Structures are given as C-alpha cells and as structure tokens.
Amino acid sequence: MSDAITHYGQLRELTTDELAYVLLMLDHPISADALAEMERCARPVTVDDLVAIAYVLDTTPTVLLSHIPIDMPEPEGPFATGLPSDVDPTELRAWIEGGDQARPRVAGARVGRAGRPPQGQVGTPRGTAAGSVRRAA
Questions:
Q1: 16 and 49 co-located in one domain
Q2: In principle, which of 15, 49, 102, 131 could form an S-S bond with 121, CB 3.0–4.6 Å?
Q3: Over the stretch 56-73, which tens digit does the pLDDT of each residue have?
Q4: Could you give the 3-state DSSP secondary structure of residue 103?
Q5: H helices then E strands: how many in the chain?
C-alpha cells in the first residue's frame, strides 16, 4: 500500500502536499506528514483513508491494495497479515481484484468459532450449495 501511494501520486504528478490539500478539500484531512508516514509504512492506512486517497489518485482501493512493486525483493514472510507465506504476488492480486482465481489456498481447513470447521464448509468449494445458506422465497 505504501508504494502504491507514492507510485500513483507520481503518475498523477501530485506532491504529498498537493495530495494532502485535495484530501482536505474533500473533508478528509490527512496532513502531508501523515501521508509521508503512510508511504514509509510508519502509519497505518484506514479504510476511510484508502477510499479517499484512491479517489484523489483517480484509481480504486482495489488497485492500491493489489499494487506490488516490480522491484520488490522476495519477502521472507507473507505479503499480507493472515495469509500463508507461500501465496505468491499473482495469486494475491487475483484474489484481491476478485478475478476468476479462487481465494489463496490455506494450509488447513477454514475454522469457525472454537476452532471447529464451519458446518458444511470442510472440503466444499467456495460458492457451492453445500456451504450456502438460502432463504425461503
């Protein structure tokens, strides 16, 4: 996310100060210093921040979330918190963008409350009737 703010800001030829100013005009004030901290991964980006920044940068939150720098070294751990470490950038991007790819594979079955697999979901492909709850018409 941090590189995405920098990358798309440069593409739109916006400085951090200009980005901060436009965000202020949209009633979502984020200081230039706070934006710089986001770019350095020193400050978390909220969902509200993500939406506002994406709007100003004329892109979508999904594009910002799925941005993986070309020159990024191979990470030692997962690309995102909560994902298995063997999920590759292509798989992550496809999942975030909602493409035809399935969600990233997991090492074990999904679990529900108290560590039990959700009823009807163990071994059931996503989107099939066995894992779905339907309302009566």
A1: yes
A2: 131
A3: 999 989 888 877 666 666
A4: coil
A5: 6, 0
From the list 92, 70, 1, the residue with the least C-alpha distance to 42 is 1
Whether residue 55 lies inside any domain: the answer is yes
Rounded CA-CA distance 17/24 in Å is 10
Angular region, 32: left φ>0, alpha ψ -120 to 50, beta rest: alpha
Residue 89 inside a domain? The answer is yes
Residue 13, in any domain of the structure: yes
Is there a contact between 17 and 32 (Cβ–Cβ < 8 Å)?
A: yes
Nearest to 108 by CA among 97, 119, 121: 121
Host domain of residue 96: 79-106
Give a yes or no: residue 43 inside a domain: yes
Predicted pLDDT at 70: 64
Residues 6+ apart with CB under 8 A from 23: 29, 30, 52, 53, 56
Is the pTM of the predicted complex or chain greater than 0.70? no
